[in-house]
Amino acid sequence: MAVVILSLSVVALMGALITSITSSGEQHSLVTLDTILRSYAETAKEQIQLQTTDPTFLNSCSADAASYNPITLPAGFTPSGFGTPAISSVDFLNPTTNAFTDDSAACASNGDDASVQQITVTDTAANNVNDTLSFVVTDPKYIATPVVVVSASPTAPTLGQTVVLTATVTVPSGDPPPTGAVTWTVTGPGPPITCGAAFTCTLTLPPVGSYTATASVAKDANYKASGPSAPLDFAVGSATPTVTVTSAVSTAAGVDTLTFKAVVAGPTGGPPFSETLGWTVTGPSGPLPCGTGSTPLSGTANPDTATCAVSPTVPTSMYSATAAYPAGDPNYTAVTSTPYTAAG
Amino acid sequence: MKAPGHPVLLSRDEDGAVLLLALVFIVVIAVVLSSLLTLTGNDLLNSSNLRTQRSVEYAADGAADAAVQAVRYSESAYMGAPQACLPNTPPAGPPTSITVGAPGSPGVQITVDCGNGTRSRRSCLSRTVLPCVTRSVNVYACQGPGTCTVTSAHLQLQALVAFDDYSTTTNVLLCNRTSTATCGTGMAVESWVVRGSNS
What we know:
heterodimer; A: alpha+beta; Immunoglobulin-like; 3 helices; B: alpha+beta; 1 helix; rod-shaped
């Protein structure tokens, strides 16, 4: 019985002592590992966030341990009995859960932002005690709310002008320009407006009316996603057509007819004219009406032509004609030609 | 057979003494074992606490680092009560807390709020003296959810960070959070106090 008690006591004592010694050794290793990992983390943060040579911050969902390993360590960094620490994983901040995930596919697909990353470093001691430490690094180019601004050129376009919309994301001087795809949303009169993914969107001959444009720029290797921009409201105003009057004299059955011809022209490719051209023909005896043989604007063409035929009351006299395009056409403003004088 | 008139000789073996010694031995061993087990338990607990405290401290450190980076390029001085200031990760907006931890671990939830900041534009009008401090922002990192202030019970870290918002290109105060060249062109950590270990 005494032998049994003594044996149990010795075993218990030895077990407790061994456990205590092991724990003490583990604590010693943990404290040393803690120092190693903290130093390593500070070194890694410094190199990843601040330096211009690799390993620099990789703002991408493909960033992984290989992207940052190896961190350059000074000679004698690791004491004997301890392994060299290394980055074991890179995680991305999931904006939905506000937790870090190492799922790079989810990062790329669900809108995660790679500009905030968690890096985990691991080190192992000779007594097989291992420790990990996680720290957070941020893209040194991180901008809290990058702003994309849309501008239009010209700022007050009129019918017939090509409008170029430009999305601008301001970046630090000397930094590379953003290259992310641009998503445009442009609304206005007429059919739906489609733009490409470039930083400019060209509206060729946009119809008269009010427009609203916004743009979002997708993230790229250097910059996070930005937008949508503040809406840019602009209007395409009506154009001023040109009205040019010429004349011709024709003689039929011994009667002279003086025909004034007006060519009304809008911008190339612009819509036809919806209003009726008004004539003012003045001869030596006063105003003359347009008579037989006159033709109105066709209303289907641009440029369009109208004629005003008058019978000269006093041969060999001078007749003056002006053609006026009236107000009322949403696409064109009113305009009056310069007087054209011809001999009747 | 005993002779009459002679004293009776009693049997005196060592059973009692051995029993006593065994009892003493057991008591001593029990006491030693108890102490050893307490010591061992403390060792194990210390190891665990060391890991936990280190994780919390570094999680708070990392979260505060991220917040400082976010605040640096914003024009806000967070002059009022503390509010969320972690990086604004679209599309959810700035979170109030993030969970930091190695993959597979439960992680440590850290709330970071910024507040009680100040602006000091007067000393920077000509920017002839460096550093030019235009904003000073307090960053508070707490373990767990809820608003984090200087009086929070789970405050782990309090930092005071000063920023220079003069543009590097135009040398004027033109902080508009559109570029890293207009806000936070300079930064200095004025204090970085870890409170978790001492509380």
